[in-house]
Amino acid sequence: MGIKTQSAAHLKATNPVNSPRFSQIVGALPEVVPFVAPETLERRAGRRLALRMGANESPYGPSPLAIEAMGLAARTGNLYNDPEGFELRTKIAEQEGVPLSHVVLGAGIDDLLMLVCRTFLDPGDPVVTSLGGYPTFNYAVDATGGTFVKTPYVDDRNDLGGLSGLAQKYRPKLVYLANPDNPSGSWYTPAEIVAFRHSLPQGTILLLDEAYADFALANPTFGLDDTGVIRLRTFSKAHGLAGLRVGYAVMPPAVAAATDKHRLHFGVNRVAQAGALASLDDVDHLDAVKAQTEYAKVRLAEIARKVGLEPLPSSTNFVCMATESRQRAEVILNGLALRDVFIRKPGVAPLDRCIRVTVAREPELELFECLLLDVVSGI
Amino acid sequence: MGIKTQSAAHLKATNPVNSPRFSQIVGALPEVVPFVAPETLERRAGRRLALRMGANESPYGPSPLAIEAMGLAARTGNLYNDPEGFELRTKIAEQEGVPLSHVVLGAGIDDLLMLVCRTFLDPGDPVVTSLGGYPTFNYAVDATGGTFVKTPYVDDRNDLGGLSGLAQKYRPKLVYLANPDNPSGSWYTPAEIVAFRHSLPQGTILLLDEAYADFALANPTFGLDDTGVIRLRTFSKAHGLAGLRVGYAVMPPAVAAATDKHRLHFGVNRVAQAGALASLDDVDHLDAVKAQTEYAKVRLAEIARKVGLEPLPSSTNFVCMATESRQRAEVILNGLALRDVFIRKPGVAPLDRCIRVTVAREPELELFECLLLDVVSGI
């Protein structure tokens, strides 16, 4: 079942005399911000957060090698960054086992989503995605004037059959899928993802958001000549470089060449390129982060059960904890916010009955357990 | 006299079966890169540059306070940057004497040009600019499908009367002007710029690129309620943070709110925000950079005259040196390139008879003098 919604960009723009002559798309966009930042919450409250467990940041920091490389790169910050990101792209291409021409850098997956949407979408073009999926993809589609065809989560996972059916019906240029998924934490096997990709019609590209792939058991691979897949990766999660804004896409060379015609060539800054490059070399750090993340997810699941919540399976660095209802999840979210705990919750059914909690180090986990128990026992 | 050129986006896109279904605008864009980077030149040559005097980078480095702040910020790189850039915007607003709602951050002026163009331009909308002006503005207009109305430089400066006349005729949403100007180095007084702004028709916004304003004798100011001006500033030049990608725009609050609906909210990274904030506090460093820049420009002018070139007046951190002809300028550019000296030259008449040379420290100036003399004496 598909739920077709018009994009906000197709509302009639009201543009009175003397008001700025915005473009048709921007003039009709709603005033929304994809996420309210923890810094904004702190400014509103007038005090610091006690726990920052809402943005799926790594609590384990950047690699020490990356910190050192970034400090050095800052010293030559007067020089422009390499707009081709040659060294970093070369290392990524090696690790991914693809030619350099397949690798495109971006200032995080947000930037790459905007870049890909602008590369393909004309106003009115439909895209297929899950209802309640990653909102920044929707933000990027809105900015192009694209429209949405959405299908709800089933069993707290993306509904691959539903997405595939909508793709067959609407033949969109892009189908968006996050695997592992945010906000559910769910994951499909490589075989399932490859089968899904082959279920899509010709001319439809699977835009596969692998932001959390470092935490997955395994990830799908596709042939070098497969022109139907774009994969997105980030250094924001396991690599602990969220604040540096580095991500990359692996895409067909013809698409990469098209992005080169309108991308922000200097968008990934000098310090970010140096940090990401060093981080790729620090396999020990990455392995330690993965191990600590697994441990913290076990602890979060225990904490959830202890207070009567149901932890959903997670292949990411966060755990969705289900309550009986949306109302109850909101009460818990608000109770935690009053105690200066920053977490988030999905906004759309069926996942809106959950709170979403990022992994943390042990002292923070203990404090979280204490405060969550306080909230739940007081309801 | 206006030279009206159709944008590349209006060429007919050829989109054979099975090729990617790009958007109409991107499908028709030419494959061009605004600038070839010095890193690319080094990779092509297989060796390092001897002198990097082509990108108008500061040879005096970032402020030591900024370097320290950036090193510290890198340590918490696992946390997302503040998408509102609150601290940095607050300090900028103070220094500019405007409310916070007027200040928009971007990853350099390139990013802000794209943001402003996307905020206003629909496909086919005309913009007015100088023929041979800053190419990245043109790159941003192309990405929106906008079209150009251009007027040539007169007396090696932007032709304010010509630009104004075209604006009256075409009533564009945007008129672009760089002051001080790149690539000429020329400058108009605040009174001249304010008069120019008031010569524009209602509904036309002056997009005033002040990338080099830190080097100007004085800069124009506009009323807080003036909805006809957007000013762009950068930390890439006098502040020596080109590789960090930070700039800002001062614009009417209604326009700022519109950019918030489609901008890349996390685009200015954590280290960049920290570096720019610290740099604003280091007035001594900025003053020293300005003084050293003035000295180096005097030296560059001397060097130019010594080899028979004519230095154009400069209110920037570079000097345009005029030869008799485009051909001669190209011979000199190529001769310097063979000696591993990276400079650039304007591509469009009348400035195409010039080479453009960025200021440098004394040892580099001496080497440049030596190599330029070698080239010119060998012609």
How large is the count of helical segments of chain A? 13
Q: What would you call the shape of chain A?
A: globular
Q: What amount of the residues of chain A lies in strands?
A: 5-15%
pLDDT < 50 stretches of chain A:
5-17
The CATH class of the largest domain in chain A turns out to be Alpha Beta
Helix content of chain A: 25-40%
In total, the number of strands of chain A is 13
State the strand order across the main sheet of chain A.
1-5-4-6-7-8-9-3
Assigned CATH architecture of the largest domain in chain A = 3-Layer(aba) Sandwich
CATH H-level superfamily title of the largest domain in chain A: Type I PLP-dependent aspartate aminotransferase-like (Major domain)
Give the rounded overall mean pLDDT of chain A. Answer: 94
Using only C-alpha atoms, the radius of gyration of chain A works out to 21 Å
SSE succession of chain A: EHHEHHEHEHEHEHEEEHHHEEHEEH
**Largest interface: pair, residues per side:** A-B, 91 and 91 residues
CATH topology category name of the largest domain in chain A: Aspartate Aminotransferase, domain 2
Regarding quaternary structure, what we see is homodimer
Sheet with the most strands of chain A?
Answer: 8 strands, mixed
> Number of folding domains of chain A?
2
Terminal CA distance of chain A: 37 Å
| Category by helix and strand content of chain A | alpha/beta
